[in-house]
Specification:
Blueprint (H helix, E strand, L loop, with lengths): L8 H20 L3 E2 L1 H8 L3 H11 L10 E2 H12 L5 E6 L3 H8 L8 E8 L8 E2 L2 E5 L3 H8 L3 E4 L3 H14 L3 E4 L12 E4 L2 H17 L1
Parallel strand pairs: 3-4, 3-7, 4-6, 7-8, 8-9
Antiparallel strand pairs: 1-2, 5-6
Helix pairs in contact: 1-4, 2-3, 6-7
Length: 213
Amino acid sequence: MQEKQSVSKATIDRLPLYLRFLQEASARGDKYISSSVIAQSISVSSVLVRKDLALVSSKAGVPRKGFAVATLINDIEKFLGYDNLSDVIVVGAGGLGKAFLGYEGFKNNGMNIVAAFDKDPTLVGTFVSGKPILPMDKLPAFVEERKIRIGIIAVPKGAAQEVLDKMAGAGIKAIWNFAPAALQTPKGVTLKTEDLAASLSILASKLFRLAAD
């Protein structure tokens, strides 16, 4: 298995897709799987799949059988860091924030959402799926104590920059932002923004064009 530095971003982006498919194959009881079967499910070429997996797999595929599913799952999880759960916090305990707290699927991707933070006194002190909603002034100490390095922003646009600054100041290094705002990040902090409204608009536009054809 090669080092992460030698693997392209495009390959890293495909690995979670491979992993999800392999996990489904394992649940069906499949012991081996070929690169061509994986390729069909991901809609890429089997040559590309073989190249990607050769970079992260500890064992080559077996002729006429393919890759050992369990071993390949372990290799990809280890490469992506999913074998060690990273604790994550959410800021914003509205509908989206509560959805994050209640979703257990993130654990399959190495993330364990442990708490939310909010300034609404009617939410603070309550629990969602057994996870606490805490006041914003407790965020720095919680992050330091739990060594949190990943945060999710699920607040309105106008509050997002303040939340990002507070997260970064507390020591969070990777932020997943769901506020439709262009945020400024300090050096050493990685930001990924998801604009849900824009994504839905793009989908609707594609649907309209398909209907017009």
